[in-house]
Design brief:
Strand order of the largest sheet: 1-2
Radius of gyration: 21 Å
Largest sheet: 2 strands, antiparallel
Strand content: under 5%
Length: about 180
């Protein structure tokens, strides 16, 4: 029980999973602020939905699929939303699947689609309350002042623009 764990120059030998997991988590944490990656559309939409509590996210009990029938409109709603963004669910490019390269997700057309999508999503259950928006920004961004400066420049009468600005800020597009 009191014996030191075997290692070579501080690196644990294979098979010591707790030590390996600690090293992986430490490495990910150390490099997370320097290696941010442009998010794929699916990840970006889910991040928006969780941050702002979208009401259109499918409920688990309604997503149970009956293979004898076609999917309901409710069940295909998220798929339709992803298609608007140019992300065709269930159709990853072969043979490697979805790309990990930023340039495959950051074309001018795809950025414009994200701006339009976020503007439209502002009308789907997002609270139009300044205190709510400030709370979301404080809880979810490392530099909330940076986001607040961006939205100060937006016309307060167009909530869709404010929401699109938050969701398309570099802090949210890259994680």
């Amino acid at each position: 029980m009191g014996q030191p764990r075997p290692s070579h120059n501080g690196v644990p030998y294979p098979g010591l999973l707790p030590e390996i997991h600690k090293a992986v988590v430490k490495s990910a944490f150390d490099y997370s602020s320097t290696n941010r990656k442009f998010q794929q559309p699916e990840t970006w939409v889910l991040q928006m939905a969780r941050m702002f509590g979208f009401s259109w996210l499918p409920q688990a009990e309604k997503m149970k699929y009956d293979f004898k029938k076609e999917p309901s409109e409710y069940q295909t709603q998220i798929t339709d939303k992803l298609r608007e963004l140019g992300h065709l669910p269930f159709r990853p490019q072969q043979p490697n699947g979805w790309s990990d390269f930023e340039e495959d997700w950051i074309s001018p057309e795809l950025i414009i689609r994200r701006l339009i999508f976020a503007s439209k999503m502002a009308n789907y259950g997002v609270k139009r309350d300044n205190n709510f928006i400030k709370t979301v920004i404080e809880k979810n961004f490392d530099e909330p002042d940076k986001i607040n400066k961006l939205i100060e420049k937006q016309d307060k009468n167009f909530f869709g623009n404010i929401f699109a600005t938050i969701c398309n800020s570099s802090e949210m597009l890259k994680a």
